[in-house]
Design brief:
Number of strands: 5
Strand content: 35-45%
Number of helices: 2
Shape: globular
Helix content: 10-25%
Order of helices and strands: EEEEEHH
């Protein structure tokens, strides 16, 4: 039904935040866009787009992620435990690239503690 359950782990694995999201737009080989469902602990939306390069031998992938923790100041404090930064997204993109090129999936110990 295009709904997915996500779990974000804080560094050290002491706290988890879970939420459900739904794909709101999908264009094969071009775009996947999503948004969290109402009541999510971590309100978020975003998209991933794919585009062939001018050489045609590579694909450019772009990621946009917007998030806002629920529960006001308390939610913002919890949100600081989950540093959804450019660096983490870049690490996820590198893992995705590795998977697409080699079919290799990294084991749990190879994943950073903040991996989603």
């Amino acid at each position: 039904d295009r709904r997915y359950h996500w779990v974000a782990r804080a560094p050290g694995g002491l706290v988890n935040i879970e939420w459900d999201a739904q794909v709101v737009e999908e264009r094969e080989n071009e775009l996947i866009a999503w948004q969290s469902l109402s009541g999510a602990q971590l309100s978020n939306a975003g998209w991933v787009s794919f585009r062939d390069t001018s050489e045609g031998a590579q694909t450019e992938m772009r990621v946009e992620l917007l998030y806002r923790p629920a529960a006001g100041a308390l939610g913002a404090a919890i949100g600081r435990c989950f540093p959804l930064t450019r660096q983490l997204i870049e690490e996820d993109v590198r893992r995705f690239k590795r998977y697409m090129e080699t079919g290799e999936i990294l084991s749990e110990q190879d994943q950073p503690a903040t991996h989603m």
